[in-house]
């Protein structure tokens, strides 16, 4: 068992839901252009396309007007060649740039987070990478029939300070630090906050492999364990561990309407692992819908229109047990209802999976699903040392 920290919730935060790239990128570029002192940006993927160029140029403009700009990209997600090119172009225009964990020098973990803070006043957190939303992510590059479906939220208020601290600490850790300073950053305590006098609004839930190993999963388990009426989860990849799957089944058994909206078509192995779970989940009343209209990249959930989460964490082993992630947890009826309506539109656009579809499948498909689960779970257990089964 690793050390665990609780999420600190604060009130008086203002949140604006950003639906896919059409809303996210104008908000991001506007925030970059309005920054006066400091910008932090962290992303898994920073593509070489028209959208990537727009964000790149906005960051360079900010640096040229003497804003301190700090950019971190994941070395694997962005790619060695592309991240090296970004390093040269950003350095030339005055942007400070670092790559996360090149050549796996610090283990297997990747930074899968999508975070932005400007002037310690405005933050944006979600699941959207810096790439054009009509070009598919993943193994096979292709043009999408509709824009990639994803979410983020802009944040102002007390929570911004916590997101800024997370990002500034990350900047230091990605740089060159001796082991003592690195340990100090890893063990630094959060400042205590007074109990709110009004309903709780939001909290930051990061995930790493030291102090925040299970923060996001525990948030999901707590929300599902307390669900009374409805739980809706959208995720591109569905391959969680046993505790997560059991929490879904337990909620459905209690009469909660549990709906999983799952992406498909990006990775055959990942799809097969998800399919291996379908029969048991369906038998216990979990509704499963596959989103085939375009590429689903959203990592969002709503429970009872009172609790919601948006962030970078997929419901799979890589996100829940290995990678660095960041989600925002929201306890607000109005925002949760807005997000719920958006997810339900995705459900309406999806294809419902029926138990009958999996009752008479061929032995070859059963064998493929079983082998895929065994391979995937063995890799996760080996790398993360987690009870995945």
TrEMBL record:
Ranges of residues in domain PLD phosphodiesterase: 107-134, 292-319
Gene3D superfamilies, A to Z: Endonuclease Chain A (3.30.870.10)
UniProt GO molecular function: phosphatidyltransferase activity
InterPro entries the record matches: PLD-like_dom, PLipase_D/transphosphatidylase
The protein's name in its UniProt record: Phosphatidylserine/phosphatidylglycerophosphate/ cardiolipin synthase
The organism's taxonomic lineage, starting at the top: Bacteria, Pseudomonadati, Pseudomonadota, Betaproteobacteria, Burkholderiales
GO BP term (any one): cardiolipin biosynthetic process
Pfam family, one: PLDc_2
